Amino acid sequence: MQNIDQYPLVKDAEGDSLRWYFISQGERSIIKVVDYSLISSVEGRPVYNLAFGDIEEGGFVNDRSRSNNGDIYKIFNTILFTTTLFFDHVPDALVFVSGSDSQEVSELPCRNTCRDKRCKSACRLLHQRINAYSGFVRRNYTALATKYLFLGWPKGKVLDEINPYAFEPFSPQGDYQALMVLQDAKR
Q1: Three-state secondary structure readout of 119-140
Q2: 27, 19, 26, 23: which is closest to 7 by C-alpha?
Q3: Which of 107, 133, 109 is nearest to 120 (CA)?
Q4: What is d(CA 50, CA 99) in angstroms, rounded to the nearest whole number?
Q5: Which tens digit of pLDDT belongs to each residue from 10-29?
Q6: Which of 17, 52, 122, 168 stands 20 to 30 A from 85 (CA)?
Q7: DSSP characters for 4-27?
Q8: Residues forming a β-bridge with 29
Q9: Nearest in space to 123 (alpha carbons), one of 99, 152, 153
Q10: 84-133 pLDDT, tens digit each
Q11: Looking at residue 166, what is its pLDDT?
Q12: Burial 2-11 (b: 16+ CB within 10 A, else e)
């Protein structure tokens, strides 16, 4: 996982948030942001939500955009690299990761604007983002597990609390709707 292709980053810390901005250089230039926002605390450890999206006019972050800019792998590598930077700043944090397309409310707008109508009982784009994150962890689990602990929230189980004790240990064979990531202090 060394020498991965990623975009240069600009850090911004404001209040309880850490953000890294970059410019996606594909078919267009698009300003993107990776945002870590404090959402709770568990036994004195801060819990942050990882969010990602395009910066739109007025500074609004659109975490549902699909810019299709031709540079998805470079963007994905950039997002993942910010995790290392984030833990350098907040080493005892827990990071909550879910996809903005994992909530059931994501399915309705998708079905209403769907061009190919190939979905049967469930929208095929539902959970696409968390599937990408989980897939990366799955493929690189051996290397990542030397530095991080991963917990998963199974698909189909109601996510009613963001508490690491309610999550299960990550399994590369698991199917998750959310992940929790923390640095492994023992390693």
Answers
A1: CCCCCCCCCHHHHHHHHHHHHC
A2: 23
A3: 107
A4: 9
A5: 999 988 899 999 999 988 99
A6: 168
A7: ------EEEEETTEEEEEEEEESS
A8: 25
A9: 99
A10: 999 999 999 999 988 655 555 445 555 566 665 665 666 555 556 666 77
A11: 81
A12: eeeebbeeee
- Confidence (pTM): 0.80
DSSP bridge pairs for 62: 54
Q: How far is the C-alpha of 4 from the C-alpha of 73, rounded, in Å?
A: 10
- 44 or 121, which is more confident: 44
Residue 187 confidence (pLDDT): 47
Name the strand (E) or helix (H) holding 89: helix 72-89
How is residue 7 written in tokens?
Answer: 């975009």
**Residues 45-67 as b or e (16 or more Cβ within 10 Å = b):** ebbbbbbbbbbeeeeebeeeeeb
Q: How many residues does the chain have?
A: 187
d(CA 36, CA 154): 23
CA distance 128 to 102: 8
Domain ranges, ordered by start, for the chain: 10-183
The mean predicted confidence, pLDDT, of the chain is: 81
Longest Cα separation, the chain: 49
DSSP state at residue 112: H
